[in-house]
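Minutes, project check-in
Item: structure for the 145-residue chain
Input as provided by the requester:
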Amino acid sequence: MRPHPRIVGFLSQALNHEFLAVQQYLVQSRLCALWGWQDWSATFAGESREELEHAGILSDYLLRFGVSPSAGTLRPSRPGRDLREMLEQDLEIEWSAVELYAEAMDFTKRQRDAATASMFARLLEDEKEHLQHLQETLANMLGRG
């Protein structure tokens, strides 16, 4: 089955987004390690691995559609100057993922591509969980949680 070109576009955009998130979390992990914050370093490293798994899922879909996966050009990471700023930067990344995956899921449903819609739905749920966790962590840091 040849996918709608916009589905390929969503997959490619999502892959680029996931690699951006991998880069962001990896840089934050290394920065925390340099600052001696081993627990946060491990947390960010785990997030990076999870985003890399998402990139693998998206790559599989592109390959099945006969498209060579490419993340394009990533913008520079924005690790933040302290932990709060790091988490705020990550919140922006997760919000954009939620918006992207919701739009992609809706479009693939309208195209009657149930398998791809289901994949985007799973990624959407993962990103919503990341978003909620970040929001709770930030609220706790600000004394509102």
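Outcome recorded: Residues 33 and 76 are 20 Å apart (CA to CA).
No further action items on this chain.
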